[in-house]
Amino acid sequence: MPESPHPHFRWRHALALALAGACPAALAASPAAVTIHVRSDRMTLQLAKAPQIYVAGTFNDDAVDQIGALLASGKVSAGSDVYLDSTAGDISAGMELGRLFRQARVNTHVGAWRASNRRTQPALPATCLDACAYAYLGGVYRWAPSGRDRIGLHDDALPDAATTVTGEPSPKGRLDYLEAMDVRAEWFAHVLTASDHGTVWWDANEMAPWLVANNGRQALEATYHPSPASPELVLSQTVKGGQNRITLQCAPQQVAVTAHYSVGYQQATHVAARAMYAYFEIDRQALEKRAGALPQVDGSALVFTRELPFAELATLLHTLSFGAWIEVTGSPVRLGFQLSPAVAAARTAPFLADCAAMQPGYQPPPADEPAKPSFWDRLFGRVS
Fold this sequence. Notes:
This protein is α+β, with helices and mostly antiparallel strands. The chain contains twelve helices and 17 strands.
């Protein structure tokens, strides 16, 4: 087997091959032809705001042609939800489906078709393997599986696995596809579990933290606006239905933090009229929950601002959980959003440094001292 271009996969791949040899996988049933169902009744459009498409069976060239024709027909709008349930197919076809999904701006889930939309009918578990898993990565918004639904790859379908099948993508082709779908290979490795009879299932609980799934949220963006008088940093995240953002403005001894929670004008007006508290959380610890003005409506967003001590800034910018929350009268459920500033720490570092330089008594850090010669350098006279 050629050496893996990404060492993060090597131990998992080796383990998968060893277990597969010891415990051969059960023979799969004959692959079924692709089936496509579209649910676009009034209730679905009212709740989901877009049609739902259910795709099952074999993901091959015929599936690509059928789904491509459906997406091009105009019957499926951007923002539609595609539910996948397939254990057979060609990886190359799965990747082509993923590219079609991304081009059409649709979202992906793992889920099985139910003939009835009634909640009384139990949901059947869905399984998304190999070609289906690569197709899943094409969704603009990708929801991690829940319940008994599963997604994974056979050991020979892992991104760095060598292949001798004509027409199937090489390890480089698979890794390039991950990158094109905004999935970093080193992060993807964290969702892979140990092989189970030759199948490497993805850990659904790890998919969103490592951005293999995004559960309705795009990658965090950080935009710094330098200013000698008042540096400003904007953390924004596009979500299904809008964009949430946190604006930080630096001043001596404090930082003004403003939340913009996008909910739509009608919902914003309704929530503002019933709001009791608005507050921030760092690492799930509320900051002065009952202090400060209530949120105000600004266009389609609810907005509120709090002043935080400068000493809190480094903690805020390095946390994986920074929340902006609103509690309303008569509801046990709070409203708001959560960001992970730590994933953008490299891009927020200049703002933190410039803000620190504005503080009273600031002392610039000492210049780096030259490294002391090692014992061996001194022993062998290599010190100039």
